Structure formats: structure tokens, C-alpha cells
Amino acid sequence: MRLLITNDDGIGSLFLHELIHALRAAGHQLYVVAPKHEQSWVGAAKSRNRAVHAARADRGLGCPTWIVDGTPSDAVNIALDHLLPPDACPEAVISGINVGLNASLGFIIASGTIAGAWEGALHGLPAIAFSQDLTEEAYNRLKDQADRPDDHLLGSLAQSAARAAQLTPALVAATRPRSFTVHNVNFPFPHRPGAVVQRTVPAQVIVPKLFSPAADDGTHRLIFRLGDDLSPATPLTDRAALAAGQISHTVLDYARLGQP
């Protein structure tokens, strides 16, 4: 298939690179458009009040690649309308692999990864968002090592990228064009061989107190929190599946919003 790949962690993310390598190894024709810098938690924001720069780049990924100094939504929108060759309309938009989970209502709405896929859905294309759950310890170690995964994390990431490549064709085939659907797939950590895919719903998590009290200069800083899970025991939620070491697959059908 022809696929447009994006993310919200930026063009330099090895999580993005692992997904690209796995999809290329599976024989897909890829086009890559990614933000110049990390754009986590920006949701579906678009750069309304400034010009956005896009440029072709060679990052050694083995496929046409562009860098956009905007949001994931900017990147996908500009790529689909202006960057891709006229004869290269992709069959789907794939976003990820994200550094960390995108599970539960609060995280799904805020996710730049899911927003990149959602921009594809807004163009009438099947769309998939892939994310790699991490423990707080694993995330902090990754950041302390300048975003270079250690062997343990790299093993899980390689497993997740391979499963993403395996899952992509069936998810795309199961999605009607112009259906306003995003498949949100979260991989557990560690990702063990044989992890099963479970259909899930978003966990009902409230996420209060995300910013610190004001400092002396009046500024507030974001404090990461997983939030408080208020979900009933059933149906199975994305967070519960990940906690059980399973792959969470949530179908985000935006066309059903507001329906009884």
C-alpha cells in the first residue's frame, strides 16, 4: 500500500524510524511528513496565525521525507494537499509510534499523534494511530539518554513496530473511506511476543492538577499525571488492556458523536 506516515514526537524520533523500517520491510510504499520539533499534547491544533514552513529532507529513511515546522495536523494537511506527487495519493495515514500511551479520554483528545491520524480521516482516508506505553522509569531513562532507547526498550519497540506493520493492512481494509474513523492502537510495555489484540473503549479518566502552582515569575509548568480512572469494570478499557500486557485497539468513530 501507499501510506503517509507522521508523528508528534518529531522527525528525529527513533520510535517513528522503527515504524518506518517495519512498514518498508513489509513492502509498503511510504511517504513521511513529520514536525520539526516535538508537538506532544497539541491535539488537533493548526497554525492559524503564522506561516508554516515545509521542506524536503533526506534523513536516511529510504522514502520521500518532508519536515514541517508546525503541528502534526499542519504536517498531514500540507502533505496531502501540496507535497505529495499528484499520482501518489496514499491509501491511509499512519501516525506514530508515539513515545508513551495515548489511552483514556483525556489523553486521546489531547494527543498530537491521534490528531495526525485524524487529519487523514478528515481527508476521507483510513487512519491509524500507534502508541507505545512506557513506565515512568522507562520514560525518564529514555529522556536521560537523549531519546536513545536502551536494549530493553528497543526490544519492545521493535516488537511493536513489527506488530504495527502486521496490523496495518487489515485495519485499513476494514475502514470505509470518508467514515471519520481513527484506529487507536496502544502497545504494552514490555511488549512480549504473542501479546493479544483486544478491542477496547477509552478509559474514563479525569486528569486534574496538570499544572504546577505559580512560580515567583507567575509561570505554571505542566506536571505529567496519568489521572484517576473512574471506569466501570466492563467493557474492557484501553488502560486495563495495557495493564494486562495486551494490545489495545480502540475504534474512534467520530461520526457517532452526539448519537443516542
Task: Provide a descriptive summary of the structure in words.
This protein is of the alpha/beta class. It has one domain (2-201, 232-256): Stationary-phase Survival Protein Sure Homolog, Chain: A (3-Layer(aba) Sandwich), CATH 3.40.1210.10. 30% of the residues lie in helices and 21% in strands. The strands form two sheets. Strands 3-4-2-1-5-6-7-11-8 form a nine-stranded mixed sheet, sandwiched between helices. The protein is globular and about 50 Å long. The mean pLDDT is 96.
In short:
The chain has 260 residues and is of the alpha/beta class. The protein has seven helices and eleven strands. It has one domain: Survival protein SurE-like phosphatase/nucleotidase (Stationary-phase Survival Protein Sure Homolog, Chain: A).
Say which CATH homologous superfamily is assigned: Survival protein SurE-like phosphatase/nucleotidase
For the biggest sheet, the summary is: 9 strands, mixed
* CATH-defined fold name: Stationary-phase Survival Protein Sure Homolog, Chain: A
Radius of gyration from the alpha-carbon trace, in angstroms: 18 Å
How far apart the termini lie comes to 36 Å
Count of discrete domains: 1
Look at the structure and give the mean pLDDT: 96
Structural class: alpha/beta
Fraction in beta strands: 15-25%
List low-confidence stretches: none
Shape: globular
Strand order of the largest sheet: 3-4-2-1-5-6-7-11-8
